[in-house]
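How it folds:
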Amino acid sequence: MKKIIILLLLALCCTLQTVAQVGIGTNTPNENAALELSSTSQGMLFPRMNSTQRDAIDSPAKGLTIFNTTLNCIQTNIGTADSPSWKCLGYSPSSKGTAIVSSYTCSTASAGTLIAGTTVSGVTQTITATVTTVGTYSITATANGVTFTASGTFADTGDQNIVLTASGTPIASTSSPYSYTLNTYPNCSFTRTVIDPNCNGTAVVSAYSCSTASSGTLIVGTAVSGVSQTITATVTTVGTYSISTTANGVTFSASGTFSGTGAQNIVLTATGTPTAIGTNSYILNTTPNCSFSRYASVTGYYANVGGTIKDFMAYNIGVTGSQDPMTYQSGNNNGALYQWGRTTDGHEARTSGTAAGPISSPWTSTKFITNSSSPYDWRTPQSNTLWGDGTTGANPVKAANDPCPTGFKVPSQA
């Protein structure tokens, strides 16, 4: 009898040893765990496969667990071997509907303008959803009083575009641009700028264009007259405006009332006196704004030469009559007669008389030199650089013989 009892005890001990807990990385696994893994530097790695490979598993047992590389989640079969239903643990790719979306791209396209204090109209954001399971969706993103929404049904898998339509009224633009994050998982974000329209009046203008038209000429040291710049305002709310911009001693300004919405032209009239020659940028005192450039000339006559604006004297050197180039003159009133390359030495006077040439160093004479022999020059040897324009191209440095007044030079060949 004792032998039998001893054998039963041994058998019992063997049975208890068989069902004891198993520990990996620990000698004292939790008594409630059949298996405990313990590590501070390693994790547990489930079998990794995409959705197609997962679906190829033959009769997956209920509770079978994998890591789905398509959806980037740990999935467990909560269905049966004959009718599996895979569920992501911790989260489920969500479209806030029945569809499953593995990823979103928020920067596909955008349209419309958000204006502080103005009810949204015509504002959209197009996003792209990578759909893995067709079904319904209901997506929103809210910030600063504005909500972008879209709902519907995905009929196909793969990349599908969704147009989110905005509603609401932007509260302010102090923290613009504002970030809008989708209420989905995974999600994405997009930013939209809020304009705080300010025309220094009661009207609301969403945009300005400064290049509509311009007229008149700015002349350094001369009070402005007949100079204007026409701009175009995109008006969203009618009301008053007061717009100005100042640079180089000149102010362009206009005030009034917009009686209609949409594109409205405004003529800014200039006042003041330009203080320096050159091109200046005039920026509107509005939000949003725009800018235009105007050139201040010394003479009022200028041209774009190779991308650089050059002033030209409005009259000939030596004019004794009117200096107005639009006034007809004759004879001596048309100016002096210079020989190419000669400085102001008296020869240029129409009464200086003539002398046979050419002449040589020191090339000084108060006469107009004549020469009937090729190359017909007034001096020998001939020189093409006395007025700063050599045979190889333009010389930007004013030459010593150049007879033009201070601030001007004889134009180069270019």
Remarks:
- Residues 8-12 have pLDDT under 50 and may be disordered.
- The chain has two helices and 29 strands.
- The first strand starts at residue 22 and ends at 24.
- Helices lie at 2-18, 51-55.
